[in-house]
Design a protein that fits this description.
The structure holds 2 protein chains of 2 kinds. Chain A is mainly α. Chain A is built from 13 helices and 4 strands. A two-stranded antiparallel ribbon of chain A has the order 1-2. A two-stranded antiparallel ribbon of chain A has the order 3-4. In chain A, a hairpin with a 3-residue loop joins strand 3 and strand 4. In chain A, helix 2 packs parallel to helix 12 and helix 4 packs parallel to helix 11. In chain B, helix 1 packs antiparallel against helix 2 and helix 2 packs antiparallel against helix 3. Chain B is mainly α. Chain B has 7 helices and no strands. Chain B starts with a helix and ends with a helix. Chain B has 2 domains: 80 residues, Four Helix Bundle (Hemerythrin (Met), subunit A) (Up-down Bundle), CATH 1.20.120.1200; 44 residues. The chains are: A mainly alpha, B mainly alpha.
């Protein structure tokens, strides 16, 4: 047994890496909840959580314990099977999408491994499409939750969210396509590697500098896709109680909550890989690239939370109008101009 | 190993498709159709066509089925219970049954003909997935450019038509 593991060190390392990514995603949700509450408190001149642990840092753990011991409620007339399937679908899609996101160069763990191990769960040639496919499956969690709850608030939330996700998925996909054309590849690893180096020895070759409009469209559509403020219509508290997860309690609710934060993490990670040069950055040696990656992702996540506590929620018709009449035409123009330049310059 | 995966996906696809037809609840029919599409996508991966597999999920399982689900939810059809008399007359009558039987026989005959004329050739050793995207692009925009553009015009026409039909007279 032991000999088998010693012979297949890379296999073991790969399995450990998968488990590691899974754990990090879960923990990231807890950490994000803590920072969200702290930043909210800071924005509103409150203390935020400060009782459990040093400056409230153990609050997420207390929350998780509380959620685990809550009673699991199910409304009468709910469709039992779909009611329990929906949160599982949401969480699975959230975890699954991160499987193809690379977050660093390869490592041999200081010579411990025979072959270098790439820092990602799996390398797929069409990674970009896989992420797109898996996130589009996440809609079903929300829609089914709304329908199976047999409650009008849930139903309205689900209808809004599916309309919103369909509308913004188009712009989302088109901003991705522009980057794919620039890099000439659908693999996230090659896209990141295409962004290595500098122009004039100063400006990093990140796509955000060539594609500022694309980055703006991607982030806006990403915020809408993850149902975060100012696009948090599926769960608009003042109108819909809590939207699609109104009827959920205990761990089923926690799964939805976790899925939302993991989706935020994934969108930020993909944005980092596509527009901010992934793990490429100055000063640090290349084996510390993941630190750059983490730094950029943290910045985008902070931006996410910051925006939530700064911008008020739009009205529903404004959301649709913005999505179809502004964002989509901008994305199309961006795509066409990029295509023209790529063809003309022969990149 | 590939054989095992093939059978897993094939069985799921067939069972889910049977479920789509056999389900009384339209909501479950839609969901089973998504399962069936997912299994098909798995088969595409086995055929070394990850691009087609991803597109299958994005377009069919993702976009089109969400619209189906949307419609089913908005119509709020709880179950497809046969109303007394109506459905029995419409589909269960002697005429439709005989017509259905003829169609079934034709379908079986077609399947038998197609199967017997199937030439089993070995799968060509396909190149990497990236080049498969490249090849699909070349085929679409060079060899079949006319068909591709004609289809896109057709879809545009359908979209404009739908908008005109759905527009309220003001």
């Amino acid at each position: 047994m032991m000999a088998f593991f010693l012979d297949n060190k890379n296999l073991v390392a790969q399995l450990l890496l998968i488990g590691f990514v899974f754990q990090v995603l879960q923990i990231s949700a807890a950490v994000l909840v803590y920072f969200e509450r702290k930043i909210a408190a800071w924005a509103q001149q409150r203390y935020g959580p400060h009782l459990v642990g040093p400056s409230g840092s153990l609050q997420p753990i207390a929350d998780i314990v509380k959620l685990m011991f809550k009673e699991e409620l199910r409304p009468r007339g709910a469709d039992t099977f779909l009611f329990y399937l929906a949160p599982i679908l949401s969480a699975t899609a959230a975890f699954g999408a991160f499987a193809v996101v690379p977050f660093g160069t390869s490592t041999t763990l200081f010579g411990l491994l025979d072959k270098p191990l790439a820092l990602e769960v799996t390398d797929v040639n069409v990674a970009m499409l896989v992420i797109f496919a898996i996130t589009s499956m996440g809609v079903y969690g929300v829609v089914l939750a709304g329908w199976s709850s047999n409650s009008k608030y849930s139903m309205l939330g689900a209808l809004r969210s599916s309309a919103q996700m369909i509308s913004y998925e188009l712009s989302y996909g088109m901003s991705l396509a522009a980057v794919v054309m620039l890099a000439g590849s659908l693999s996230l690893r090659s896209i990141v590697d295409a962004q290595a180096g500098y122009w004039f020895h100063v400006i990093p070759k990140w796509y955000v500098f060539i594609q500022p409009l694309g980055f703006f469209i991607f982030m806006t559509a990403g915020v809408a896709e993850t149902n975060r403020a100012p696009f948090d219509f599926p769960e608009a508290e003042q109108e819909l109680v809590a939207g699609y997860h109104t009827e959920y309690s205990s761990m089923s609710f926690a799964l939805f909550f976790m899925a939302e934060y993991i989706n935020m993490f994934t969108v930020s990670a993909v944005a980092t890989d596509l527009f901010l040069g992934g793990w490429h950055g100055p000063f640090l040696p290349s084996w510390l690239g993941w630190a750059w990656f983490l730094l950029k992702v943290s910045f985008l996540l902070f931006f996410y939370i910051w925006m939530r506590w700064t911008l008020p929620r739009y009205r529903y018709d404004q959301l649709m109008e913005f999505g179809w009449k502004w964002l989509l035409p901008m994305a199309v123009i961006n795509l066409l101009v990029t295509a023209g330049i790529v063809l003309g310059m022969g990149w | 190993m590939d054989g095992l995966y093939f059978w897993i996906f094939a069985v799921i696809a067939v069972l889910a498709s049977l479920g789509v037809v056999g389900q009384r609840n339209p909501m479950y029919s839609v969901l089973l159709l998504i399962v069936s599409f997912g299994a098909l996508s798995g088969l595409y991966v086995l055929l070394n066509a990850p691009f087609v597999a991803a597109i299958q999920i994005i377009i069919y399982a993702g976009a089109i089925m969400v619209l189906f689900l949307f419609v089913v939810m908005l119509l709020n059809v709880p179950t497809e219970d046969p109303a007394k008399g109506y459905h029995v007359k419409l589909l269960g009558g002697a005429g439709p049954r005989h017509f259905g039987a003829v169609l079934a026989v034709v379908l079986v005959a077609e399947l038998v003909w197609a199967m017997s004329h199937l030439r089993l050739t070995a799968m060509p050793e396909s190149a990497g997935a990236t080049s498969s995207v490249y090849q699909i692009g070349l085929k679409l925009f060079r060899d079949y450019a006319f068909a591709f553009e004609a289809t896109s015009v057709l879809i545009l026409l359908a979209m404009v038509g739908a908008v005109i039909l759905a527009r309220k007279e003001s």
